[in-house]
UniProtKB/TrEMBL annotation:
It comes from the Bacteria. This is DUF2129 domain-containing protein. It comes from Paenibacillus aceti. Keywords: Cytoplasm.
Length: 87
């Protein structure tokens, strides 16, 4: 139903010009203080899109987000110690 998305953190030198990144994917967050943009692009076209973004003069560095690979299902293997801490 929804296409697979990949997140990227793009470090920029000019925030005004960084608004143009919206034509390459969906911009999720733009940090004014630290000068980076978090954006999501389609996973099947990600390589070509990042190659085009890397050519832009205001882009300093591009990092891939590992949020999809972080384990979000937790198990409770540790026993509950709250019974030992009485009020």
């Amino acid at each position: 139903m929804f296409p697979e998305r990949t997140g990227y953190i793009i470090w920029v030198s000019d925030l005004k010009a960084a608004r143009n990144l919206e034509k390459y994917g969906s911009v999720h967050y733009l940090s004014r203080r630290m000068h980076y943009v978090v954006m999501y692009v389609n996973a099947e076209r990600a390589e070509d899109t990042i190659k085009n973004i890397r050519r832009l003069p205001y882009v300093r560095r591009i990092e891939r987000s590992y949020r999809n690979e972080i384990k979000t299902e937790y198990t409770k293997d540790v026993p509950d110690k709250t019974q030992y801490y009485g009020l």
